[in-house]
Design goal:
12 helices, alpha+beta
Length: about 425
């Protein structure tokens, strides 16, 4: 079997070169100049043979040039109008239109339909239809050639116009398709980025909570167990050090995850809500041995599951931060239902935020100077459900986290 691969490649290369030549900036001028020379070569002998006067002969030459040269100097709309007018005058006055002029008229009609007003392109085909109909009713006319030319123009100019409109529609469809692909890619990228940020928050809240509890419990067991052998105390100390190192490494990995790197899909599990807050507070109290209270005020109301999850994660992260930065401090977790939403207030009686963690006294930042993501994650959770969150030094000492969450998630904000 004959190998057609090189033939197909050659055909594709020739088509590509043809498109580049057709769309080159100088192509209309070169084409118009060549058609003008051909029109002169046809009009001059025919004018001499017809025995025209010098003035009529000069007028014929000018009209022949006007039927071919305008694309070299004018834009598509202006050149199409000029060529159409010159062609109509040439046919009407001299019963003559050169083959080059006919070709120029068809090219101008297609070019106008592709790049100019389509209504004008359609309108410019009407004069040739009128000329064809007028020639068909004039049975005494001896210019059969002119009648053929007008009939050809009346048939081919609309065809060229329709071809130009179809080419333009196809180009616009391709452009719109490319734009849609870009928009879809952007939406997908933003969605993936948001999902990675959500996974990052989930991992940070859940894993950091449990690892910090391991570190605290190991340290508490080492200090609270009397007469512990040195080897056992050393192992508990190693457990605490390993847990703290794991927290540091996890923060580094989550920072990489937030920078849009690839990650594996986290395993799905039931999401906690406000009903699990008692267990969370109890586990925090057992881990630290410090006083941790849950205070609920107002008539409890059913909230959106997403809002409950956000409230749970905010409390969880606040308790984790208290254990990490204010070990041994008492913590009060207050939930207040006010009818249209939920108010959170988590306060510890520790030393409060360091001076380096403040915005010049105007309020604390939501992101720690050491690169921690806990407060930033809490704020993102509150904003994601349509609420807001504030952090800072509590009156009288300690650290305070406040959040205001709506009863239902807001889809647009």
């Amino acid at each position: 079997m004959r190998d057609v691969g090189p033939v197909m490649q050659g055909t594709a290369g020739s088509a590509g070169r043809g498109r580049r030549i057709a769309t080159a900036p100088r192509t209309p001028a070169v084409t118009a100049s060549l058609l003008g020379l051909l029109a002169l070569a046809e009009a001059i002998p025919r004018g001499i043979a017809a025995g025209l006067s010098p003035q009529s002969f000069l007028t014929l030459i000018v009209l022949c040039l006007l039927t071919t040269l305008p694309p070299a100097f004018l834009r598509p709309a202006a050149s199409a109008v000029a060529i159409c007018a010159a062609s109509v005058l040439s046919i009407t006055l001299f019963q003559l239109l050169t083959v080059a002029g006919l070709a120029a008229q068809l090219i101008a009609a297609g070019r106008l339909a592709r790049r100019g007003p389509q209504a004008l392109a359609v309108a410019l085909s009407v004069p040739f239809l009128i000329l064809a109909l007028a020639g068909a009713t004039d049975t005494g006319s001896a210019h059969a050639e002119t009648r053929v030319v007008t009939i050809v123009l009346a048939g081919l100019v609309p065809v060229a116009t329709c071809a130009g409109i179809a080419w333009r529609a196809r180009a616009e469809a391709a452009e719109h398709s490319a734009v849609r692909e870009v928009i879809a890619g952007t939406i997908f990228e933003n969605t993936a980025r948001g999902e990675r940020a959500r996974i990052s928050r989930e991992l940070h809240d859940v894993v950091a909570h449990h690892i910090s509890m391991i570190a605290v419990q190991a340290e508490t067991a080492r200090l609270a167990t009397p007469d512990m052998p040195a080897a056992g105390a050393q192992r508990l100390l190693s457990i605490g050090d390993t847990a703290r190192a794991a927290l540091t490494e996890m923060r580094r990995l989550l920072g990489v995850l937030r920078e849009d790197t690839e990650t594996e899909t986290a395993a799905r599990q039931p999401q906690p809500g406000l009903r699990q807050l008692n267990e969370l507070v109890d586990s925090a109290r057992d881990a630290t041995g410090a006083g941790t209270r849950l205070i609920v005020s107002g008539p409890p109301a059913a909230l959106d599951p997403g809002v409950e999850l956000a409230a749970y994660r905010i409390v969880q992260e606040a308790l984790t931060n208290s254990r990490r930065h204010a070990p041994g401090a008492a913590v009060d977790v207050e939930l207040r239902y006010d009818g249209d939403g939920l108010r959170l207030r988590i306060r510890d009686n520790g030393p409060g935020p360091p001076a380096a963690w403040r915005d010049g006294g105007s309020g604390p930042s939501t992101e720690r100077p050491d690169g921690g993501l806990g407060l930033l994650g809490m704020r993102e959770r509150a904003l994601a459900v349509g609420g807001d969150l504030g952090t800072g030094a509590a009156p009288g000492g300690g650290f305070l986290v406040t959040a205001s969450l709506p009863g239902k998630m807001e889809t647009a904000r």
